[in-house]
Structure formats: C-alpha cells, structure tokens
Amino acid sequence: MPTAERRHHPVVRVTHWVNALALTIMIGSGLRIFNSYPAFARKGETFCCYPFDGHKIPAWLTFGGWLAGARHWHFAAMWLLVVNGLVYLGFIYLHGEWRELVPRPGVTRDVWQMVEFYVGARKDHPRQGKHNALQRLAYFSMPLFGALAVVSGIAIWKPVQLAPLTALLGGYVWARYWHFLAMLALVVLTLGHVFMVFAVDPYSLRAMLTGRYDEAKSPEARNARPFVNLRAPRPARDAAEVPPQSAPDRRGQP
Amino acid sequence: MSKLWLPRKHEAERLGLDRRAFLEAGATTAVGALATAALGGCNSRGPESASGLLAASTRWNERVEGVLFRHDAMNVAPAGAQAAGARFPSYFVSDEVPIWDEAEQGPWHLEIGGMVRRPVRLTLGELKDLPRTELRLEHVCVEGWSAVAVRTGVRLSELARRADVSPDARFVDFESFDDDYHESWDIESALHAQTLIVYGQDGRLLGPAFGAPARVYSPVKLGYKCTKYLTRIMFLPAANGGYWSDQGYEWYGGV
Prior knowledge:
The structure holds 2 protein chains of 2 kinds.
Chain A: E1 4-6, H1 10-34, H2 67-95, H3 107-118, H4 133-157, H5 163-168, H6 172-199, H7 203-209, E2 212-214, H8 219-222, H9 246-251
Helix pairs in contact in A: 1-2, 4-6
Chain B: H1 19-38, H2 51-68, H3 102-105, E1 110-114, E2 120-122, H4 124-129, E3 133-140, E4 146-155, H5 156-163, E5 171-176, E6 182-186, H6 187-190, E7 196-201, E8 204-205, E9 215-217, E10 230-236
Parallel strand pairs in B: 1-10
Antiparallel strand pairs in B: 1-2, 3-4, 4-7, 5-6, 5-10, 7-8, 7-9
C-alpha cells in the first residue's frame, strides 16, 4: 500500500508483545503473592501509607493459583521481563529510537496542549513527530517505572544478600511498598495506553503488528479525540452541514 | 482505500471506525483472549505444559541464589523497628501446638549426626552452656511479611565444629517432632554466622508457639526453611527436600 510507511522496527514490535506477556504474568502472579499478606506493616507495627490493609486483591485478577505457584511464575517471568527490557533499551539506544521518546524542551506546554485538545478546549491537534507529547511522556516513564519495579523486586527478593540495595530503598517494608507502587504505575500507564489505542488510534495496532502505518490515518491527520471515530455522525447541531444522504450511504454498505 | 480516510480537517471527526480497523481491533482482542486462555485463565496455576519450564527456571534461580550467597552478608533489624513480640505469627503443621512430653518421650535431646566424626547429643541445659549468640533480626516470611525479634542461641557453625563435620557434607537436614516437618539446606547457608540453634526469643526462653525447646533460625532463609521443634540435625551428601519444598515451594528459599 503506497500510503503505508514503516513505523516500528521488528525488534520494537517483538519486544513490545513479549513485554505485554511478561508484564501480565508478573502482575498476575505478583498480586497472588501479595494476597498472602495484603498489607505492608511489619508485624507489631502500623504502616502509614496504605489504606487497604488486609484487603485481598480479587482472585480473578491473580495468576498462579497458590503462593508457591505464583512465586515460580514470578521468578521465571522476571528473567523474560528483564532480558526483554534490556534488548529493547539497548536497541532503541543504538538505533536512535530513543530520540522519539525522551521528553523535549517545553514538555509541560506540549503535554498541556494535548490535554486541552483531548478535552475539547483546543480545536486542532497539536503538531507532533512520531508521538505526541503525552505519548512521549508515557513511553518514557514506562521503562523508568519498570526499572523501579525490577530494582525494588530484587531488593525484596534478597534483603539480606543485597542488604545495601534494600537499605537504599528504605528497608524491606518500604522496598515492598515501592515495588507495589511501581506495579500500580505500570498498570495505570498500560490501561491508559490500551484505552487510547482503541479510542484514538486503532490503526496503531497494525503498526505494532506488521510495522506498517498510514500517516493519513494518524490522529494528527484526522484530528482525532478519544472515541470521536467510533461515534456515529451527530445529527443534532451539525445536521445542516452534513448532506442528508451521506449517512444512509455509509450505513448501506455491505 | 476509502476516500473517507483522507485527512479532512474537522470533517474527519464525524467518521465511524472503518471495517478494516474494526477487524484489526477484533483480531487483536481475539489474540489477547487466546493468550489469556493459553495461560489457563485467571486465578489458575497456569498451563500444565509450562511446568517443565517453571521447574527449570526454579533450578536456575536456586543456582543464582547460591551464587549471590555471601557469608559476610548480614541482617540487622532497623534501629527504629518495633519487636513483634506476641504478634509474631506462630506456625506449625501438627493439629495442636507441638509440645515435647518428657513424661512420655523422656528428656529432650538435640542430636547432630550424619557425616560427622563426633556425633553430638545435647540436652537443653548443655545447649545453653555453649557459647551464646544474641541477634536482633528482621525475619522475612515467604508470605511477604517481616517481623523483628531478638534471637538467642548457639551458632550452628559452632556445633558443626564440635561434631567435626566431614568436608564431603554438602547439605544439612533439620528434623523436628512437629509431625514429619523437616527442611534441608545447603551447607553454606547452614554455616552462615547468623544461623543459630535458637532457644530464646526476645529475652525469654522460646515458647511452645515458636518452636520450643529449640529451633533453627537464620535470616538468610525464608521462615519455612527454619525448622521449629528441632530434634535432629543431619549432615548429608545430598539434599533431602523438606516439608514445604516437597509440596512445591522452592527448596533453596534464600533471603
């Protein structure tokens, strides 16, 4: 297809989906491990900063079946997550993709403009390169939270053998808390990411599967806000602007 | 390709999702659903076919844990941390708290045997007469909680020296009178300076809830490796599994 350009290198596409699988296993099994002690306080103490002490995560969100099983999955998938993450980071460093991901000067203004556009306070999609400012921020912070998850995970795996690392994070109890917060951040980023893919740019799925992308369908070119492309034409206020026959035409397509 | 998707400012917003994108989105959702099903679904142990891979990964992780092990890595409970005291969870596998019944079983002894040149048999009094070590440690449980306690006892390395353990012994099995509870360790962890045969906790004699009259304790192992209600310490040429290890928990269980 002449309009389709190469958007994602095969290494990026493979590591993206491997990461999706590894993260799913890590979070599911991690939540099952967490359910064995769904709190942070050291025994005999209280913990300042977790309001859901003692409340288990719903079982359907967990993976591994029982504590030992979840631990086996967690400590197996951690290698997948780490090796895959290093391949990805090494690749984007050597291949230059990191330039599309690090925040640029004026990131606050650019992010604000994107927010304004998404909430309808701004008419036109801000100009962007490969990614918009919100995407840059999300894709840049994802590896950072991933690194925090890995480092804090190692710290609670080996709080004695790697005691200095655990101490750096404030000790075993706090390292466990950072591990949990890093997971939460990854979940929020992932949910936001998946939501935006379907609500704003479903064509990016093709880019992450086959690598090809049609710039004419990009959110910037379409001026796309969340869901606007999934809505039927609004008949009310704009009715006069839309030729009456145009809507039945499209619906009439087989 | 449909002309509908050519960029037309503001017009574009009115367009519906085209069929191609719809199919792609649907296909991806299906792939995701299949992947979930392949994993065996939520709250499951995962596919049976993964068990070989998981076992291999666990063996690999145990090797990594062995490499990470250092004799000079020490645990020190944080200065500000409160001792758990009576809130320290108490675990045993018998139906009731195991209590050594002297009337029925005779006086309690701790035996040290296996690959040793001088088998040792100690009464509780004799154990207490040996060089005493007292450590304030933060304990880590496999479940994720931690708890601080002061542990009083004798270094296992001291007992091993007295028993003159053979250099060929590579593993240690800790047996108990709590049903058939036992856990075997690598000898490196057993000879760590913070691995103690504990008879006191928080300045008092070990209570029945915590493994009286004596138990093994080390901050370099997860709680389930630290056999309570100790009766016998066997130095062995090969690992001998353990109560939880045989049920699927990682055998090494290092911290």
